[in-house]
Amino acid sequence: MQAGDDALFLGIDCSTTACKAIAWDREGRAVAEGRAPIPLSNPAPDAWEQDARTWWEALALATREVAHALGDRGARRIRAITITHQRETFVLTDERGEPLHPALVWMDARCRAEVAVLAAKVGEARLHEISGKFPCTTPSLYKLLHLRNRIAPHLASRPVRMLDVHAFLAHRLTGRLVTSVASADPTGLVDMAARGFSAEILEWAGLSASEVPALAEPGERIGEVSGEVAADLGIEAGIPVFAGAGDGQAAALGAGVVGPGVMYLNLGTAIVSGVIAREYRTDRAFRTMMAATPGAFLYETDLKGGTFTLTWLARLLGGDAEASSSTLAALERDAEGLPPGADGLVLVPYFHGVMNPYWDDAATGLLLGFSGGQGPAHLYRAILEGIALEQRLHTDGVERASGPIKELRVMGGGSRSALWCQILADVLDKPIVRAGTSEATSLGAGILAAAGAGAFAGIEEAAAAMTSRGEVFVPGERRGVYERLYREVYVGLYPALSGAMGRLAQIRESARSLTRPTRHENS
User: Fold this and answer.
1) Which of 48, 159, 402, 491 has minimal CB crowding within 10 Å?
2) Distances (CA, A) of 20 to 61, 134, 392, 457
3) Which residues contact 335 (CB under 8 A, 6 or more apart)?
């Protein structure tokens, strides 16, 4: 298939709660899109699971919506497909790719014991050096150990396939068990310097080389859509499928971040940011990921309590799923009139522990400065400011390794808030530039598809042609207040209270054990 001027490139974004399929043209315009929800289960505290088959069902439904919107003639313009996806989520399957157990989602944090055991056995420094990820509950490696040690020990004694979301969907599309190296690296199983699975880590995980998929570089052709699958999706058979990347790496590409000096910032369920680097380095200030541009790396930061924290606030105020958006819109209007610092209320947003720079799964959120004159709008503004202050901590750490960052390109649902974008500009004292599309993650996949199909000379050329910049927010007169708030208050809060957080976590676990049903024997 040749990629002519009218060619379309299908970016499939299989995220935590939905799959989006968007057909992009050569100018980076979304021509048609489809969306389908993906159920998420929370069967126990810290447990988050999905039926991997719903990933495929959602992909099929979303793609059929695109094909329907384009019509038969328009659907024939699709020249390539690339997948991007939620990271660290994985499923164990049999040799045919059929799930043997529900997939463990990136948020699943039941593996604290496995993190401690492997870190003590191997050493935190060694795990960090090979994988680029400091030991914590996020990488799939520790979730896998917990799954086979405690949840489903029968899976430890039989042959399996460990598949990330990209590998699972690529297998359904093409029949090949293959994934992108930029999709496999969040699992924690990859030797980052060698750009392949680490034999050493596979041994620690109890996996053989035959139990993980083949690896391809982002933008590399990995197969084509089979006839039977194409008929089900409403597209032509034989469309080539090109290796993608995890959603964070794809979002950077979709924001036009292909070189140093510019940081992407995704204001989503989690707050993820990163800069492109050519040198492989590890540091507690960030985790090192493969970039969507082959041969490059991302120095990436991750705060797991992002827009989730705002959803939590809406639920706290009694709003259901339908009412939460209007509740948050009203809070934003009220918060705009409040002074910087939310009248003395400061929030540390560690609602799901903290990764960089502290790597403490026992960390919790903090609120300092409550008083009787404050209301819900103060808490709303404190959340926006707390996340911005934490992003300042992350950005400062990355800059020490990457060099100066001159601007941040922002995308994701939170980027729609002009108030939040301005707070970020003031707190970081750097320009905040909206990406040309809020669907930068899917666009990143579309860019890889377009480059792979030969529509452009390479990935960077495709990114230059298909991405754009939106509104710019520059630092204002409030940045001095935020500088004092950051230096004099925020940076000292976690170090001062981390010991109490750890003790509180122990007490919480002890208290939880008292709520579990006990068996009483008859006397």
Assistant:
1) 159
2) 9, 31, 31, 27
3) 342, 377, 378, 380, 381, 384, 419
pLDDT digits (tens, 9 = 90+) for 396-451: 999 999 999 999 999 988 999 999 999 999 999 999 999 999 899 999 999 999 99
- Give the CA count within 13 Å in the CB-facing half-sphere of 228: 3
How far apart (Å, rounded) are the C-alpha atoms in residues 502 and 508? 10
Position with higher pLDDT, 3 vs 25: 25
Tokens 């060694």, located at residue: 126
In 186-230, DSSP assigns E strands to 190-191, 196-197, 214-216, 221-224
Note the pLDDT tens digit of each residue in 361-376: 999 999 999 999 999 9
Q: Would you state the torsion angle of the CA atoms of residues 22, 23, 26, 28, taken in this order, to the nearest 10 degrees?
A: -20
Q: Which of 221, 138, 134 is nearest to 180 (CA)?
A: 221
**φ/ψ of residue 341, rounded to 5:** 95, 5
475-498 tens-digit pLDDT:
999 999 999 999 999 999 999 999
Angle at 1 (CA atoms; ends 8, 73), nearest 5 degrees? 50
Mean pLDDT of 175-188: 98
- Before 517, cis peptide (omega within 30)? no
What ranges make up the beta strands (E) of 114-259?
161-164, 178-180, 190-191, 196-197, 214-216, 221-224, 240-246
- DSSP assigned state of 151: I
Separation of alpha carbons 235 and 407, rounded Å? 40
